[in-house]
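Module 6 notes. Inverse folding takes a fixed backbone as the condition and produces residue identities as the prediction. Think of it as a translation problem where the source language is geometry and the target language is the twenty amino acids. Below is one complete input and output pair. Work through it position by position during the lab.
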């Protein structure tokens, strides 16, 4: 029996994770944004959407549910999405989130890591329209994400790597090659998943 694919895109800030997720969505995949949990909670509590408020809500959710909070809260939505379509996860950060998803979905979950030379990544982050950061801010964020949420684990254990130093066309070609390679693996039996 054919089983829809589940891919989580990981990488450091500014590597191009959201671009990869948006691209997969544009070719028909469902996209689930981990940060959506935080934004929904902010809307519920009628909070202004600011980086400071996002951080407060994120920390509050992790206090209540642990470091895997976003994955735990999104499990029902991910399961529902997978019943209908291939699904890409945008925003898996922590090792704990990865462990929750791996336990639930086993070999069905594959990680694609986006890698960019640091200097190029920092330049891109400084130029972006949403949440631009200067080199000191992005360096501090990198260190914080590695030390406080164990972001390096999912990056290190990824199944595929995409080097995003070049053009957007090269980037998309590499993504499609990975998706084609996944398709070549053929049908997946439920026995393999469970």
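Target side of the pair, the amino acids:
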């Amino acid at each position: 029996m054919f089983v829809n694919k589940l891919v989580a895109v990981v990488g450091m800030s500014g590597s191009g994770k959201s671009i990869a997720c948006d691209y997969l969505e544009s070719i028909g995949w469902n996209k689930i944004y981990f940060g959506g949990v935080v934004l929904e909670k902010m809307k519920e509590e009628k909070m202004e959407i600011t980086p400071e408020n996002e951080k407060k809500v994120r920390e509050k959710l992790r206090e209540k549910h642990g470091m895997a909070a976003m994955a735990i809260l999104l499990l029902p939505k991910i399961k529902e999405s997978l019943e209908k379509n291939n699904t890409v996860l945008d925003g898996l950060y922590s090792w704990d989130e990865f462990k929750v998803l791996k336990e639930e979905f086993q070999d069905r979950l594959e990680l694609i890591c986006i890698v960019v030379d640091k200097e190029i990544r920092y330049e891109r982050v400084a130029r972006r329209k949403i949440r631009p950061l200067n080199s000191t801010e992005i360096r501090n964020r990198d260190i914080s994400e590695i030390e406080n949420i164990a972001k390096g684990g999912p990056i290190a254990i990824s199944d595929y790597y995409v080097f995003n130093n070049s053009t957007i066309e090269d980037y998309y070609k590499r993504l499609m090659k990975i998706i084609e390679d996944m398709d070549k693996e053929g049908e997946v039996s439920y026995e393999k998943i469970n």
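Reference fact for the lab report: The first strand starts at residue 6 and ends at 10.
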